[in-house]
Design brief:
Blueprint (H helix, E strand, L loop, with lengths): L4 H13 L25 H10 L1 E4 L13 H9 L1 E9 L12 E7 L9 E5 L2 E4 L5 H17 L4 E6 L7 H14 L5 E6 H10 L6 E4 L1 H15 L6 E6 L3 E6 L16 H13 L3 H17 L13 H11 L1
Parallel strand pairs: 1-10, 3-8, 6-7, 6-8
Antiparallel strand pairs: 2-3, 2-9, 4-5, 9-10
Helix pairs in contact: 1-10, 4-5, 6-7, 8-9, 9-10
The structure holds nicotinamide-adenine-dinucleotide.
Length: 323
Amino acid sequence: MCLNSKFSFLLFQVFNVAGVPIEWEEHYVGTEVDPRTESFLTWESLESVRRNKVGLKGPMATPIGKGHRSLNLTLRKELGLYANVRPCNSLPGYKTRYDDVNLVTIRENTEGEYSGLEHQVVRGVVESLKIITRQASLRVAEYAFHYAKTNGRERVSAIHKANIMRKTDGLFLKCCREVAEKYPEIAYEEVIIDNCCMALVKNPSLFDVLVMPNLYGDIISDLCAGLIGGLGLTPSCNIGEGGICLAEAVHGSAPDIAGKNLANPTALLLSAVMMLHHLQFNNQADRIHNAILQTISEGKFRTADLGGNASTSDFTKAVCDHI
Ligand code: NAD
């Protein structure tokens, strides 16, 4: 399923060339608020993901400080998408300050500051509630350690600010520690978020798998994207209840370049690769992945974010040619 029309045409081209045997159900964001979801996200699109248990979504914009409920929040809540997995790897041939970034952020996806509980206490004073529950913290910690174990990773770092938010982040850490005890083969450490940011920009190879509450995950994963060349490059996958896997790029709707055929489709294509691995279409996933890496490494067709002048469609065509 694809919730955004812009990239779907290009994506279908790549999938066709790679011979991916997938039948798509396409769903688009509605033009009116659907009373059943209280957002522009239609009930039918949610049902489609529930039924198929797998999907690929495009970025969805949310107005700042006003308007309807965030589409992404609706999606995460309704589908119980509790963990967002965001791998971040240096791309061979594309030079940045570091050539050895190889880490994965795992973001709790359903609560924290994103619980949507904000109100005005009195005029001029507003309050936002940060919710941390034992259930959601254990669930995401369990996912992070399981991910580390099954993906040959050696260490999980829990990122927090429990020195200040002693109750909320304190509970999150307590849950991580409990889960860590079940995985003695995986090293476990706790890092305060501000120190983590400094360490990441100084030496990203210090980190392996990072697990953290919602807001920190949102910020840290963009920071990590910056380490390897930007948001045009980083994929993600949302893991949900009942084995749902909903892949999406880390980036948003990029309003400054939207509709101009300038966006780098790598992040979305790599997200599609994650989805294909989930479906066990490993051969096709690897072929697409290698074609993307070759295209970037050759450097003939790079989009503007990577210093080139190729359009989105030029880049995609080059990927298809490499497949
Ligand atoms: P953004 O990720 O859309 O853009 C940030 C910067 O990265 C911009 O300069 C943009 O041009 C660049 N960029 C993003 N994707 C790119 C790509 N594929 N190729 C090249 N450059 C790329 O973040 P924003 O501007 O803060 O948010 C815009 C909208 O997107 C907001 O409404 C926000 O709520 C929404 N958003 C949605 C998601 C999602 O759907 N998962 C994620 C983040 C933001």
